[in-house]
Design goal:
Layout lengths: L1 H12 L5 H17 L11 H14 L10
């Protein structure tokens, strides 16, 4: 994961002028990585969508109860 992050964000989008610019780019990349990236091992759906579908099957079958965080 660290190498992928460095290759896609740090090296490709640099040079960086401020730490804040790196932080913002990191947040944008993490959001993309979890919410938009299509993952072949998950049936070409984003990880967040796959996890939501999995959680739905668990709660529907009574195997697990998912509590909201916060």
């Amino acid at each position: 994961m660290n190498g992928l992050y460095k290759a896609e964000v740090i090296w490709r989008r640099g040079p960086w002028k401020t730490v804040e610019a790196v932080e913002l780019a990191t947040m944008e990349w993490v959001s993309w990585f979890n919410n938009q990236r299509l993952h072949s091992a998950l049936g070409y759906v984003p990880p967040v969508e796959f996890e939501a579908a999995w959680a739905e099957t668990q709660t529907a079958s009574g195997l697990a109860v998912v509590q909201p965080v916060g």
